[in-house]
Amino acid sequence: MNRKELKPESSPVAAFGERLRRLRDERGWTQDELGERMGFSGTHISAVETGRRPPTPHFAASADKVFGTGDRFERQGRAVRHTALLEGFPDYVVREVQAVEIRLFELGIIPGLLQTPQYATAITRGEVLRGAITEHQAEERLSKLLERQTVLERTPPPMVHAVLDESCIRRPVGGPAVMAAQLDRLAEFASLPSTILQVAPYELAERRAFDLPVTLLTLPDWSHVAYAESALQGRLERDTRFLQPLLRAYHQLQAEALSQAASVAMIEQLRKDTSP
Length: 276
Known about the structure:
By secondary structure, the protein is of the alpha/beta class. The chain has two domains: 70 residues, Orthogonal Bundle (434 Repressor (Amino-terminal Domain)); 152 residues, Endonuclease, Chain A. It contains twelve helices and six strands. A six-stranded mixed β-sheet has the order 3-2-1-4-5-6, with helices on both faces. The mean pLDDT is 88.
């Protein structure tokens, strides 16, 4: 049987999953057998072991009870919940790596896949100063972002459609030099053969299709998943009843947004106006 290699040093979620699998293996239990003892399905056990699903407090407490580990799983579970990565995000990243097409819409901030290291650092520094995340969590977030950006370098690369609300390019982040480099990065991104970059101008007003950021992935079997975030959690959606309206709305957004040529012209003019 082929089993996914676990890397416990990569994140608190992975460390929790590795310990769960190791103790299960030591006892010779299958995932279904462990699930029966804990009150969860074997599929749920598999998702936690491989980091695709974070452990809930109830799950961690049940694991401690079954394995007789005191409160070790509960303490690990708290570390998972205190990570800088939102619930649902690790599951999304697994799909992002597989995607043949990525459709992005963002408000107020450049999407992570398109950020320069300096821009990303400024964003996380701001969150640390606000007390939203710790220094360690900021480092974790930056490390994960750099890892995610390699998806654009694979062969063949995914087709990436990015629609940015005008607020993304006009919001100053990190000072003039950082913004200038970030705008240059956007122009370079738009020149790639596997990308389409558009700006949704303020003039769209109430006609703008989305009021929140959204990501739509097309997987190798041409199925789709959507990912969206609130302030507290991320959600991965696979149900076609919800996906079809999102895809339709995204296509409408692309039709009403500026063309790539007009978008790049806006970015380049803004770059000249904000030169350090």
